[in-house]
Amino acid sequence: MSRTCQVTGRRPGFGHHVSHSHRRTNRRFGVNVQRKRYWVPSLGRHVTLRVSARGIKVIDVRGIDAVVAQVIRREGRI
Length: 78
Description:
Layout (H helix, E strand, L loop, with lengths): L12 E6 L5 E6 L3 E8 L4 E8 H10 L1 H12 L3
Antiparallel strand pairs: 1-2, 3-4
Helix pairs in contact: 1-2
C-alpha cells in the first residue's frame, strides 16, 4: 500500500540528504497518512479512509459527505 492520501492525493516527495560536507544521498519525504474511520450519513455506514493530516482538515471544512462523494467519483469505490 503506497502512502497516498485518498482525499488530497498527496504522495511521498523525493530529495537528498545533504551532509555538512555537502555530499548528497537520496531520501524520501513521507506523508503523514492515518487510517481514520468516519460515519457517513448519506451511505448509512462507516467508511475507513487513508488520509493525511491535511486531508483530515479538508474533511472538517467541506464535510464528510462531500469528500466521500468526491473520493467515490475519482476511485470508483471506497
